[in-house]
Amino acid sequence: MFNFVGTPVPLLELESVEENGKRFYPVPSGERYPSVTTVTSIRSKESILTWRKRVGDEVADKISYRASRRGTSLHAMIEAYLKGTIVEDHEKEVLSSFLFKICKGDLDRINNIHALEAPLYSDYLRIAGRVDCIAEFDGVLSVIDFKSSSKIKRESWIENYFVQETAYAAMYFERTGIKVEQIVTIISTEEGECQVISKNDLSKYFALLKVYIQEYEEQTNNGI
To answer: Which pTM was predicted?
Structure first.
């Protein structure tokens, strides 16, 4: 059974809106902040378009749908497990059930949970989003992101994951005053391995986050 610590102050619920393929969150100031995912995907647009052109739209759509369904189901199973509810309800999703069993041992390294699927935003960074999990991982307070993949990822491919997780750490500190010491990416793969990547140098990725935000704003201002 996992221990829930909770947050020192309530986190305001945010409802997202979609516009031209981008996600935004209205915040108390009346402004709409782009989601962290929208901002951090800015550099991958060209490579995704190249991939879609190479495999064709029909194949790309099937792969994207499968990956999205796999990830959504796996997230639901992980959230149920951490909350101590019935995971078996999701076992009709055979692939996601397989992926859950692969990462279950590493999920047990989590405890003292502050937040699950929690809304966060930053007036300083002008971004928002929902964090998968903020909890201790091996005893260190961490932003923990749950991913699924067909295969093991090279770290050079997933810089945006680390930037996104750092954004959540910054937003959590702004909202609560609690400093997150670590970011952790847990990737359950169809190859049967669970890849766990932890990073403690958040300053490096915070600097990159500001670059990502600047690039997003420049593209937005240029109508891209």
So the answer is: 0.90
Residue type, position 171, single letter: M
Q: Kindly report the length of the chain.
A: 224
Please state which CATH number belongs to domain 17-218: 3.90.320
Q: Where are the domains positioned within the chain?
A: 17-218
Return per-residue pLDDT of the chain as tens, 224 residues.
899 999 999 999 999 999 988 999 999 999 999 999 999 987 765 555 554 566 676 655 565 656 667 778 899 999 999 998 866 655 567 888 899 999 999 999 999 999 999 999 999 999 999 999 999 999 999 999 999 998 999 999 899 999 999 999 999 999 999 999 999 999 999 999 999 999 999 999 999 999 999 999 998 877 65
